[in-house]
## 1
Amino acid sequence: MKKTISMMLCVIIYCTCTSSVRILKASGETAILTLNNDTRYVGELITVTDTTLFFNWGGTIFQVPFSEVKNVYVKGYSLKGQKAWATVLLTLIDGTIVVSGIASGDLWWSIAFGALIPLTFIAFRTSDPKVDFSSSLTDNDLKQLRLYCRYPQGLTQEQWEDLLSYYQQDDFKSLSRE
């Protein structure tokens, strides 16, 4: 019985070793930008300053003041579908161990693994990274949003000029005037 429980423990540990669908991309993440007028754009996050979002949409770099941004949603990081099946699977495994422990008279294992059921559920339901940013961004929101940008640390003046030159632009465009 102890070998079975040990094996089940290994299966649980293996199943709980999960990560995001992918790691952060070297280029900026794909995001859905919604402006205050409910216009939506899907493009790449370039960088973020304290007041402005720089966004690549259709091969053009746009600057958008946060005062005009209603929402920024970073695509590809929600684990809801994966977590649903994993939660069910782990609950079934934990339940099997609890029932096996009770049937064999080993109450300690039943209690220990029975406690894993709610802990697993809570861990899977609270572990999504923040990917939805509203218009009233806090300093912490800006810090997290920067992580999804191609240039999270910002750019020097020379780097800005090189970026604009690469995209064959003289200056940044404005989405609000599009």
## 2
Amino acid sequence: MEKVAVYVSLIGRSKKLKDNFINKIIDWCLTKNYDYTIYFDRVKDRHTLKGRKEFEHLKEDIVMGKYPKVIIFNIGQLSRNGQENCDFLDFLCDNNCDLETTNEFETKLWRFVMDKYKIEKERLER
């Protein structure tokens, strides 16, 4: 079993919504035979990643090398701020941690975007 971190952020207070959403992620992890730990933030909105306690805890654990992969439902679970999402993807790359979404196409798309982002970043640093 591969050990992974799961990050979930939800807007609203509905316990039923939270349970339903988390169960979908758990089913995904079980299908993939992942040993998972869930990091959950209830958020006011998804405009920013700032101020998310569990997200910061997840980042600390990634730096310590606890997880080779982070699972999210979709990229919208992070932030609506594209730059913050790219910064997080860059952080994952710097810490040898992969990102997987429950939507395989989205994972491939973000991996493509991240590769282009790294190439441009290296070009600008020269």
## 3
Amino acid sequence: MRCINWMIVVLVLVMLPRISSAADLSSYPNVEAPPDLEAAYGFIYDLFNRFEASKVNFKVSKPFELGALRDYLVEINFLMCEPEKITSLIDEMENFCESDTALRVTSVAILSSADVRQDGKIVTKVGMYAHFSHTPAADEVKRTFPNDALTSILTVAKFEPGVKNLRRQDDINIWLSKMIVIANKTSNWNFEFSGYVKNIDALKASTEGFSSNFSDVAFPTVNEVTYSKYPFIRFDGIASIVK
């Protein structure tokens, strides 16, 4: 099982040569955008505000150019609560097609943190890679991100923990602490996720709720642990899908 830190380091090292500039979108519209991406920057700023994302940071590559196509690799990092809404955010991102520009998400990593909002919601850290493709054929750029499969997991298991203020939450049987979605070289999509569940029966029931969306699902690590003085099972899961 690869750990989240290893995955993020590899992603950063692979993409680093192409990343050339960074921008904190909280200062938009004072952020300088490449002329091709001015409309996309404004859209992303409004979209992330609507989803109550904070500390949104952009890193944009120099474009890869091929004929009329200019393709920008973009790294986006931000904080948000209720990360199960990330699938709706991705859907709106990929629906964007304006000024000959299309947005396509290629990987997502979600990590829980020890921080909570004033209303008690857990704060999660989200990292995302996307391609911003500027081309006259923007409306024909293929969508491949497995949003439906990610939605099926996040419908069953959210990131809100089953213990709050040292009290067990009886309505939460399972929760996640990390989720990674990334494409491999053969165009398959790999999911890696970790979390906690009340017992094995609850894990089996939760898995049945999303397994039909995947080619395979497995749990390489399942251990009994103590979480805030309560017994739980900690799991590491992997799944894959061909899209």
